[in-house]
Amino acid sequence: MNFYIITLGCKVNAYESEIIKEKFLNNDFIESQNIENAQIVIVNTCSVTNMADNKSKKIIRGVKKQNPEAILVVCGCMSQNHQETLDDLDIDILLGTNNKSQIVELVEEYINNKNKYYHFDDMQKVRFEDMQVNQFTSLTRAFLKIQDGCNNYCSYCIIPYLRGVARCKDFSKALSEAQELSLKHKEIVLTGIHTGSYKWNNYDLSDLIIKMSQIKNLERIRISSIEILEITDKFLQVLKENPKVCNHLHIPLQSGSDKILKLMNRRYDTKKFKEIVNKIRKVRPDISLSTDLIVGFPGESEQDFIDSYNFCQEIGFSKIHVFPFSLRKNTKAEELPNHIDGTTKKKRTRKMLELSKRLENAYYQKFLNKKVSVLIERYDGTYSYGHSDNYILIKIKGSLTPNKIYQVLITEISQEGVKGSISNCLIVN
Q: Quick check: 120 and 95 in contact, CB under 8 A?
């Protein structure tokens, strides 16, 4: 039989879908190239916003319409969040955010007995679901999930209720998986719901990075996201001394207004955020710093938005991922007064995205006519594409070998993107 996987949302979901895919392939199933011909369709859902919920449900309905005979498996945050309202979607196997590694066995059981299977765990009591993927078949870089869950309970966020309490992968198993992945991949992205909170016995994220950097074949270690207060002196020392750590950090800010940060239950203010950013840039002057930002949070006045806008400009992020506030039921933000209307949220989102574009271009301009190391990911017949270690997507005319790192001269920056010169490319590894 063949299968098709649809993955929505974050890098954690991408990792878990890769686990599902590898287990299917190891059990003699065949991957289908499209939904229409698949005998099994797995939808790994997201629920970070209302839009993500709606997209997940729309895709599930689309699968039923396109291929009503397929065995339909649905899992992930949206199903965990809306488990009691999905009966009308005619799902065959329905799971939440846990037990994704068991999907192959559940499908085989369904094939034999045709009994629908719905199961959800109490996410406040589960342990880390231990998984290991040996190779990412569709990506040059590999994700390594080292952590799950979150204990922060930011007032706008539903994810701690859906993913459960913070829990981590065994330190030795994380290193073993990294070793295995390094045989096929030059870059590993450490990921989790709250990656920077990684702790196992006396080891933390910095210790894991230090040990991983000793893996001979591994060229790059990238961190999917890290909170500003997790950038300790120990971590800064690693950033300063370890060339395998990519020159890019994604640090969620969420708001540049101290009033709004407090309402969000974020555990820092703008002064602390800036202070730590200055420390980062002292050890890595040209580092790329991207961020997440919510606009239109309840109570956000025009002045709060301006403060947020100005602070982002002052920090000089290389990219801002902007999200209009999305009300999630059963969060603290639901109870807050002064919710912002949709028109205002759209206007503020647009303005912040325009700032992001300007900041992104300004960051790119720093590297014009300079060489950067690029890990080649694909070739489309005309251009080769890859990311630099500071996460600039660069296209280079001509065919370069995927999963190889080249020194590339950045020759052009335009609205179409960043281009590099093939005549000045030297293979590094």
A: yes
Q: Which residues contact 233 (CB under 8 A, 6 or more apart)?
A: none
Q: CA-CA distance, 259 to 351, in Å (whole number)?
A: 20
Token couple for 17 = 């879908």
Q: Residue 387 is encoded by which pair of tokens?
A: 């990311």
Q: What is the mean pLDDT of residues 265-280?
A: 98
Residues comprising the chain, all counted: 429
293 near 255, Cβ under 8 Å? yes
388/405 Cα distance (integer angstroms) = 9
Q: How far apart are CA 326 and CA 54, in angstroms?
A: 12
The CA radius of gyration of the chain, in Å to the nearest whole number, is: 22
Tell me the per-residue pLDDT of 155-190, one tens digit each, with 9 for 90 and over: 999 999 999 999 999 999 999 999 999 999 999 999
Cβ atoms of 301 and 257 closer than 8 Å: no
Domains observed in the chain:
2-119 (3.40.50.12160), 133-246 (3.30.750.210), 250-366 (3.30.750.200), 371-427 (2.40.50.140)
Q: What is the pLDDT of residues 7-18, one digit of tens each?
A: 999 999 999 999
What are the phi and psi torsion angles at 323 (to 5°)? -125, 120
pTM of structure: 0.95
Q: Is 149 left (phi over 0), alpha (psi -120 to 50) or beta?
A: left
